[in-house]
Amino acid sequence: MFLNTPLNNRYVKIITAIQPFASAPIFFAVMLGNPPLWLAVLIAVLPFLVFFVLTDRLSKRTPFDIPIAIFFIGTIVGYLVSSDKSISANALYTTLACILLYYGLVNNYLSGRVYWLVMTGLGGVVVLGLTIWYFTMDDGRVLFFNRWLFDLTSGLPAIGGPVQTINWNPVGVFLGVVTILPVAVALFAHGLLRRIMLAVGIILLLLVALTASGSGFLTVICGVIVILALRWRMTLGLTIPSLGALIAFVALNYSRFAWPEYVFSVPSFLDRVDIWGKTLLMLKESPFTGLGLGQWLRVFPEQYGIRYENYANAHNSYLQLYADTGILGVIALVVAGIILVKMYLRVRKADRKMPWYGIFIGTVGGVVAGAVGSIFEVMTTGGFETSRYYYIVIPFLWVWAALLVVSFARLTASLPCTNGKQDLPRTATLK
């Protein structure tokens, strides 16, 4: 009797609200060994199976379905060609968890304000926790302008744990991307919401500055330039020259002050260039399949007889994607980029007074900012080490993509459905 149950049915609402949280046990199973992996996968998949029974579909269709399918096939190929299936399995299962998280969030695109306020609050807790974590670590980049914050947190117990690869640059890029969202909402909102989002944006901007991350600075600057241009195109005549002037100032004073050498380290950049070149040489030997899922850290030292102690990845998200998933992962990224452009062109005609318009512009600006930061950092996957090395997919990009799709769907809700089943607008309708 439940087949083809309307999407506003109480049971459907309950099961869709649960879906985004159901994938968490997979991460616990991979990283902590508990619950058993088979049980974690069952818990993650079960809400979608119930959703299928109630609605006769596994999930709503989204604009990114095709690139996600291509990417997952590339992930499977990376697993098959890997010489260390235990490491690759971690990435494979966490990829599945991220995909389920994405569709779980998208399935809630019609949920009310309370639901999304709760999800925003949870996101804020994650951002706050990561920031506190960074400023309690002993290897943070301490300079004259952020020393006070490290001193302030010195009384807190240092948060250790299995993460070996997080330092100021990934944290700076992460905070830089997140900062773009409230700033964009403030640009398009009015009244109390504008003031709240502006305050949040300023706080996040200060946190990016306090990380002393050159990659974080570049990320947030590029993101701000983009959202300002999407709000007022004429601002490009001011922001681009200002960026050039800032670069010139740093270059002219590079040796005059101590901080530019730390924040914008030339030796660190040259190390990255060296790693990129060596990684490209390795990829020439397997241009279609890549190096194998999560195998860069094993193959790189063996190939060159060296190990960069502070580099557990290629320090470039695009090269890391290619190494993990081969040409299919690159194709998926290109297709997703084209779809994103089409989504923006369609949303331009939406009502700018809608709160979701600022959210959409913020997510687009965050994507551009993250794309810039990803040139220098790997933000999609992470290495974890306890008794052995773990390689997992980080959920952040998938949450961001889901927010992009949800805001897109809310802004284009007046468009006709493609099949009468309240699906999200499909790629084919992005004209």
Describe the fold and architecture.
It is a single chain. The protein is mainly α and 431 residues long. It has helices at residues 10-22, 24-32, 37-55, 65-81, 85-106, 113-135, 147-152, 168-188, 191-211, 214-231, 236-252, 259-263, 266-283, 296-304, 317-347, 355-373, 396-411, and strands at residues 381-385, 389-393. It has one domain (64-86, 115-415). 66% of the residues lie in helices and 2% in strands. It has 17 helices and two strands.
SSE sequence, one letter per element: HHHHHHHHHHHHHHHHEEH
Integer average pLDDT: 85
Widest sheet: strand ordering: 1-2
Shape: globular
Number of domains: 1
The residue fraction in helices comes out at: 55-70%
Let me know the largest β-sheet.
2 strands, antiparallel
Structural category: mainly alpha
Low-pLDDT ranges = 1-5, 160-165, 415-422, 426-431
How many alpha or pi helices? 17
**First CA to last CA: what distance?**
38 Å
Number of strands: 2
Measured on Cα atoms, how large is the radius of gyration? 22 Å
Question: How much of the sequence is in beta strands?
Answer: under 5%
